[in-house]
Prior knowledge:
Elements (H helix, E strand, L loop, with lengths): L21 H11 L9 H48 L3 H22 L4 H21 L2 E4 L12 E8 L8 E6 L1 E4 L2 E4 L1 E7 L7
Parallel strand pairs: 2-6
Antiparallel strand pairs: 1-4, 3-6, 4-5
Amino acid sequence: MPPTEPTPNPPIRPETVGMTHPFVESDLAATLEEEPTVLVHREEIDALQRDLDQALAKADEHWKLYLGAHAEMENLRKRTEREVQNAHKFALERFFGELLPVRDSLELGIVAANDAAEVAQLRAGLELTLKQLAAAMEKSGAHAVNPDVGVKFNPAEHEAMAMMPTDQQEPNTVVQVMQKGYRLNERLIRPAKVIVAQALPKAAG
């Protein structure tokens, strides 16, 4: 077996002489680019401390203002609750005061009836009492819903109790009011009970 010839070393190119490895070069550059140590002067520290103290004082001031506003809102809430409770409790106080004269008149009417007063006097007393009651209700915002005959039926204010075939009134109009309705301010408390006109049936043939 012939002897193995030694492998010659690869020639060194002139341009590679003196060059460093790329990874070694990047580590060196990173080391050189490290931020230098920052030196803070005493004046800057004092200025920062003053800014911090002012911010803390302002925060404390705002916190005290918040606590005061919160306490005021809580007092307002409690006062409002008491006022609402009193309003519910004494809502009928004024109306009750208006009804007292009506009750007095009714009691006087009963006494007069026991004394065998004339019918005309009793009627006059009842009419006066009714006027007092109507005035008391109107002062409290209550108004009667009493449609005239011939008025078109309104389901928002009227309740049809029956239909009456007739040729004296237009169909779907009020023929008769059986019971008045009442509205308190803008709210309907009771609809008027009415009889509604209906067209006559057509003759056969």
